[in-house]
Amino acid sequence: MTKIPLRRFTARALPIDDQDRVLLLYGFDPERPDEPFWFTIGGALEDGETLPEAAARELYEEVGMRAEAGDFSGPYGTSTIEFHWSQYAITQDQTFFAIRMGPDAAVSFEHMDQIEKDTTTAYRWWSVAELEGTDEVFFPEDLAAILRKITKGGGFA
């Protein structure tokens, strides 16, 4: 089946807890439900948004955590990736921003779009060591290096 091409510019929000773990979501492509993976919070810019504004909006929409654009640090990495999701062939420019979250930060899927609710099944806080030692699939594949950069010497408090 031919995929619909889609080009998008995204902000990826990396909430970091007081143990230097990053929050990831677990889900699947609706066309490949038997191939789940871990992924970062984030999504495409809306008209007139800056990347940090999109990161703040996506943080709230995907996990229910409120933050202001100015609360994010970074960027801690940028990349262009290509992948398929549902009926789309996506080319995505992504930029990673971090935000420190307190130990009482609660996760809620309440504000997700329905397709996100249907395809996101769990969340988990991951350390660098856990990312480096797992056989589970997660994206981006260099997330452990990005997390290390954020938490060790990047000035992240």
UniProtKB/TrEMBL annotation:
Taxonomic source organism: Nonomuraea marmarensis
Swiss-Prot/TrEMBL cofactor(s): Mg(2+)
SUPFAM superfamilies for the chain: Nudix
GO terms for MF: hydrolase activity
Residue ranges of domain Nudix hydrolase in the record: 6-149
Keyword Magnesium among record annotations: yes
Signal peptide residues on this chain, from the entry's feature table: none
Keyword vocabulary terms for this entry: Hydrolase, Magnesium
Superkingdom: Bacteria
Similarity comment: Belongs to the Nudix hydrolase family.
Lineage of origin: Bacteria, Bacillati, Actinomycetota, Actinomycetes, Streptosporangiales
Name listed for the protein in its UniProt record: NUDIX hydrolase
